[in-house]
């Protein structure tokens, strides 16, 4: 009864969008008529306002009626001839809940299952039905648990949830466009914004009710025991998959790579006890709860099924129900290989071995993190941020301020120390790898492991353990790194190595300041020569956030994103080969200065931001032709 009432309210509020819009337009028309009669001089301005408001409302509200263009379905389609066992289970589930089966089953790279239907005429006319099944679910669930998942998704079709979801979603999009069009802080924006907040809560409440309805169908199909175990297993799978994707599967994406055998890697990832034996009870207890959630808390879903257990009987008996769900596929290896190929093709990534993706991608990922750290540190002090400054801040009185700036929120003392240790670990790893003393290697138990030239793991955590809050420990760390050829003024730089022809590798970046405004030559020390590129007026203003002046940290963060390939194709870049550089003088101070002499002409630059080890980079290519000061 409550679910039907919520649905009716959602439909009524959808109609209310048009009533509210009509009321606003009607009020403006009445105001315009009154102005025409009493103060004709103001009619032009009010007419302009009326036409502007009308345009925003009409364009946005047409979205509700317009048939949404369905996105190209993702994943790999599995035909009934190819996977008869899976289709048989899906058809049994559809028959049990009294609905027609989907038109397509597609395998996707997601720890979830979902259904879609491109219904027409506000959901009154059914359309093409697609069932999406995630490979990680097939890898972690049993056959019996898979029946619950399939019954849940077919339950959405049976209750016509997919018919209503499309039009309600378009209603949300229309309201968002109206609020953005008027401006959220203006009177009409506030009015429609308040309606949007209320409408979103009602729609989300309807969605949560729909999930409970689908659970009821699925539990009647699979039985209460398999249903509860499936819900618990899905929670664990979602958490482990998210961690696997974040730490491992996407490690090479920024350099154009994807590890070959992602799902085989996920199976190996789960073989590590720490990843496999997760505390599902704790995760369920700590699930966030919000009025805008589309799914009810898992604890509530489990309690609801357990309360209805005496009413439920297993409608579909699955042979070998405790076997892995993946075995329901006739050709799991071929199907999974197609999904992985689809991922690479859609993302324009090159499949490589795990070791290669980790070695190159891990370096790039940590360099980008280190540059962001230096940008945040740079905002704390007028000095140019470098390794020694970070160590100084971490070991003296401003360490709490530094930790909270890096974390983005308030911290207690133990939390602040943990943040500082993790940041120092990041910088030390980047410095060692950049200097050629260490390499990233692949480990399933944890990411970001580096080894030395002999293949022995470098205990980076041990090097920085006692540094936060300890000035003597900070000096000891800097001396240890200096012995490895890493300067106290070391700064991270983002290497430009990517899969395929990527141009020269960028080893260091210097953002400089000229006498005239908005002209910022950026010097890139590359293995092909010294690249000089000036930030033009438009590019300067495009750097976020929008403001007339940019900080050195903002300029540096923008400049380090320019890789070797862009330097090659950018006509504004002047590339000076190293054999044409006669001499380089580098003065390292609060604001480093660089003087370059080539072809008998000397040019000086004052740096406002530095990334990478400039001394080491220049020394590599102009050895014997560099002076330090």
Automatic annotation (TrEMBL):
<keyword id="KW-0812">Transmembrane</keyword>
<keyword id="KW-0482">Metalloprotease</keyword>
<keyword id="KW-0472">Membrane</keyword>
<dbReference type="InterPro" id="IPR001915">
    <property type="entry name" value="Peptidase_M48"/>
</dbReference>
<keyword id="KW-0645">Protease</keyword>
<protein>
    <submittedName>
        <fullName>M48 family metallopeptidase</fullName>
    </submittedName>
</protein>
<keyword id="KW-1133">Transmembrane helix</keyword>
<dbReference type="InterPro" id="IPR050083">
    <property type="entry name" value="HtpX_protease"/>
</dbReference>
<feature type="transmembrane region" description="Helical">
    <location>
        <begin position="7"/>
        <end position="35"/>
    </location>
</feature>
<keyword id="KW-0378">Hydrolase</keyword>
<keyword id="KW-0862">Zinc</keyword>
<keyword id="KW-1003">Cell membrane</keyword>
<feature type="domain" description="Peptidase M48">
    <location>
        <begin position="121"/>
        <end position="307"/>
    </location>
</feature>
<feature type="transmembrane region" description="Helical">
    <location>
        <begin position="41"/>
        <end position="62"/>
    </location>
</feature>
<keyword id="KW-0479">Metal-binding</keyword>
<dbReference type="Pfam" id="PF01435">
    <property type="entry name" value="Peptidase_M48"/>
</dbReference>
